[in-house]
Amino acid sequence: MADWFEQPEAEVLAGLDSGRQGIDSGQAEQRLKEYGENVLEEAGRLQWWQVFLAQFKDLLVIILIGAAAVSMLTGDPESAMVIFAVLLLNAVLGTVQHQKAEKSLDSLKRLSSPEARVLRDGRSMTIPSALVVPGDILLLETGDMVAADGRLLEVYGLTVNESSLTGESLGVEKHTGAVKAREGTVALADRTNMVFSGSLVTSGRAVAAVTATGMNTEIGKIAVLMNGTKEQKTPLQVSLDRFSGHLAIAIIAICGLVFLLSLYRREPVLDALMFAVALAVAAIPEALSSIVTIVQAMGTQKMAREQAIIKDLKAVESLGCVSVICSDKTGTLTKGEFKVTKLYPSGISEEELLELAALAENYSNHPIAASIKDAYANEIDINRLGETEEISGHGVKTVIDGKAVLAGNGKLMEQAGIPYQECKEAGTVIYVAREGVFAGSVLISDTIKEESFEAIRRLKAVGVRKTVMLTGDRKEVGEAVAKEIGLDGVYTELLPGDKVDKVEMLLEPLDEKRKLAFVGDGINDAPVLTRADIGIAMGSMGSDAAIEAADVVLMDDNPAKIATVVKIARKTLKIVKQNIVFALAVKALVLILGAAGMANMWEAVFADVGVSVIAILNAMRALKTED
Predict the structure, then answer these.
(1) Of 162, 148, 143, nearest to 118 (Cα)?
(2) How far apart are CA 284 and CA 295, in angstroms?
(3) Which residues have a catalytic role annotated?
């Protein structure tokens, strides 16, 4: 069956087994049972106690618990308490961190409208949005949050903000005609006869037939992507896990051998057991995780002074390994502010062209109209305006100083049979005609952040090998911005799932020592922020979902700061590696002394404390140095 946007209204209603007056209460109840409530579902979240217990799965931790238990049973409760205290603190910190990361889906849920106005039993009623079902007839007006995906049946000057899905803040003008796919499928932004759950009606009103609810909506697909995205381990975590496994096997083997040798030498069983346990505790580098954590925490403090907030300590290491950076366009590299950038008059002056466009768009609240009026910057004399008619999906027809004026897209000029010169530059183009004669075109485009140029230059300087843009915007717009900024690649007209696919593709050739970061600010960026090795969100203008899904938040929305935090992260990672080598060297020395009977369990613990202190001093010295 063809997609809903390709079908005429009559076929849509027939396919939904509905009508212009909606469905009746009995059908609604039956469909609610069949399709479920119109809510976003969560993948089974772990309870806090499950997360807490999972912190004790590491083999070295299990060995330490066993050692503590033996110490307790053999009359050495002090050693056992020290070990349990360290393990408990580690588990609490891990649980808290995990719970903080579980908020992204909650932000998507806040997009859902609490109530919806529908036609049921032939009359208008307001119901909880959770009870909306396929086949319901939605009644929409300015300020409404769309409760479900729907095919438009009637439109009266409708403009919808779909930034939650496409990332583009420019409102989309809607109409009711079927949209036919020429090659492949139709991009979400071009399905102008559809409305989508979580989008906002910025002007006009409409009637729509509900085609999808809950997890079957486009916003539901984002929730599915976020639920299915798994947390990635950093290279250091992988290395330490591998090292821990090998070390645990070696410790068990050596301690077992020492225990047997002690028995062979006819030492008392209890003494032999205590010596083996002391050796095990001395061999396990308890301070290793704290050394890594302390240095990373100090690195995050330095990043915070640069207006970059690190939500997860392991992000520091991933940042230090970044070799590919992908970025959204609107709100990240550009300001998301649409301004008149060029005027192309035909037979009149630039000032007259801008005046005609501003007067024609006077009664419109569309962001494009607002940008034209802002550029005109003069008070508009409404006495010069005659009858004005908005032509849905095309533009405006009005009378200015007694002369007929058209202002809109190319379709409006073609519909009126007016020859015009097409503007092929990236952006939104408003064509103006007066008395049936083409008067020129106005180019409106998003403005690039000044910092974006510096950001790309600095990223190259700190060793980032590839910069790529992933955007839901049109091909010509995305390519023009990428070329101007100096990016290495660009992919356009992407849905949230497409962005995840592109990131997966870019991740394939990377090994565990080379990482990929994604920079974004929209709700539609949340799944890819989670999937990337490191997610970076804009903190000032970014959506809640993007901020909560990200590992790093730039509080001043300055993309140039990315290079700064990458440089700090690389320096932090270098210090971490220095301290790990130092800690293992000290531990090896204590182990040798312990095997020779020259060091006991308490001296091993004190050695760990000393290593931690020296590691902190080393980190303070290095990170205090200004770059």
Answers:
(1) 148
(2) 20
(3) 328
